[in-house]
Amino acid sequence: MQKAEATHDSLAESACVSGLQSERLSVSCTPVILEFRRLFQSAKFKSVNLIPGVPNWELLHAVIALYDVCLPDITPEVLYFTVCGKWAKTLLLIRDTQDVAADLNSKSSGKSGSCVSSDAGISVSPTNGSHVTSDLVVTDLEQGQGSTNHNDPVNENEQGIVRNGEEKAGGESSYPTEAGDSKEKKGIFADVFSDTESEEDTESDEDDEDFTEGQEAFLRLVRERRERRQLALSQGRDPSPHIGIESRLIACATWEKSTIRPGERNVQIDLLAVRKRFRKLGIGKYLLQTLKDVSVLGLYDALVVYADNSAVDFFGRHGFDDDIVLNSKFSDLADNWTNCTLMCYLPPFSGQTIMTESDAGLDLKLMELELQKWSLKSREAHQAQMACAMKLKHEVISLRALVSSQQELIRSLTRELEQLGADKFHMEKDFLQQQLSDLTVNIGAKARNHTDPGDDTEEVDTNKLIQDLERRITTFGVAETESPAPDGCINWQIAEEFRLSMDDSVMAGMCVVTKTVKANVSSSATEMFNTRCRHLRDPSLHTKMYLCGTLQHPERIPRILSDGFTEQDFSHGEFGVGLYFSQHASKAAHFSALGKLLLVEVGLGKTDSVVKPDNTRVAPPDGFDTVVTPGRLSLLSGGDGMISGCQEYVIFDPCQALPLYLIEYRLE
What we know:
Elements: E1 11-15, E2 25-34, H1 36-41, H2 56-70, H3 76-83, E3 88-95, H4 97-108, E4 124-126, H5 213-234, H6 245-248, E5 249-257, E6 266-274, H7 283-292, H8 294-297, E7 302-308, H9 312-316, H10 324-327, E8 340-345, H11 360-449, H12 456-475, H13 492-501, E9 511-518, H14 523-534, E10 542-547, H15 557-563, E11 571-573, E12 576-582, H16 585-588, E13 596-603, E14 607-609, E15 626-629, H17 632-637, H18 641-644, E16 648-651, E17 657-667
Parallel strand pairs: 6-7, 14-15
Antiparallel strand pairs: 1-2, 1-4, 2-3, 3-5, 5-6, 7-8, 9-17, 10-12, 10-13, 11-12, 12-16, 13-17, 15-16
InterPro entries: Acyl_CoA_acyltransferase, GNAT_dom
Region (Disordered): 104-130, 143-213
Domain N-acetyltransferase: 190-347
């Protein structure tokens, strides 16, 4: 039979914990590493026993029994599958039969296994000249005899990769009797490691369960050996012939090498368990130190484990890290157990060799290669980030350019459509007017040629036709007298209202209107204005006022007359950023281009009075559409603007205003 690895180094462990008696506990064990899968596939599986006197199938069931007792949340089927995995290896710590017999005889004679020396330690040393990887040191104190040092590496849980079967720190920390194992959760192998030799609970309910043939035979042998040991001890005979592997096995750990990523040497610790009576003695620490040894595992890049939440601190003290980002690269390598934390151990550069002595030059070379790899990966990550940022930047620029071009195209098409509509409108109007003129001429000619007084019926029909043509002209929205005013023509009603609104006392001379230009606003802008006014809190409140703007950007006036207002026309005044209006042309002239003033239809809605200046205001108060202010001129004069007539209305939505006329004037 050939095993992957097998060592039979004998370890002498001596533990000393404070107690009532001064007798020293001595435990010697043999570490064995094997692959159960390869062992069972061997042709000599039944003929050659790996451990003399212990059948190989009993060894497997004993390991599963220890895991089942310590990790009750995992089913035996999963344990068998994990331990007998294709790449799984298991490290076992096995006591000598004579030591177990001596321990049983000492308990039978009333001796305790506790010691009084609180500073005595447990040390591991080879008994047959074999090399041992590390030493174990224990400073654990029995509960009630001294304080427990929770920061000690071996004073916490020493098992529980997936589940923790040991009490938490601060609980039972004394050296327990073997009966303590029976407190574990009942399972298939619950009675295997219940080493109490009392006659109570000798019967088992396992017979009622449906187990495999190997399990039933193993459980039956365990019960028979327990009964025979009890009988031998009661008669004073040697119990050694009746001591099985279930009494000798004290700890085990199972691991496997991951083959998911070729080229990476990652090792996962699947299971780790220590018998309850042998915990707090540094055995868990020894198991981890052994698993870290490259002479045991071979060269590896990382040691990965899914630790039970109560065992995270234990692994953390032994070099394992639970950083989420660091461990994310191993999430697809390890099997995910429930309620566990993924942790990893990264070995140092030195010591990563199977040779006895480390080569400093080789270690430095490995460090240099790792630094070069880190530098290369960092540059690649930075380059990828910059490339992504530049692509996003250029994408935004191209999209904005496309949107701008489309907006300009939409505006040009809209203007062209409006112009075509206006041309069609004027052509139809001219055609109707021509028809009306021709009809009038024909009627006049007929009246001159036909003087018969009995011809009234034809005249009535002609009058109806004229009235119908006049109605058709009216439906086009233009009366016969409302022809477009030529350039330079003045709307005298608008001019007179403007002249009355100008306070000549504050002007340098008399104001004379030279021209009024009617705004030719697009239908879309008009519709937006009407829609916005309908949604005001008070849609009925709208009036004509003068724009207090265009002083800084007079070139915007033609665009305002054709397209309406936009946020580009906002004034950054003392009372906010918006469109300022005044009912007095003389006040609006101070903030408008010289000789030019815009008359605007403004939807005020619900208005709120604001006295305190705030140049950062960009919206009216909640529940209002417009704010009325004392006016910027009142701030300059220091007077009360609400009384002096300097008030200004401020709107923050350009759709609330619609330009009506541009008034051009001069002072004489």
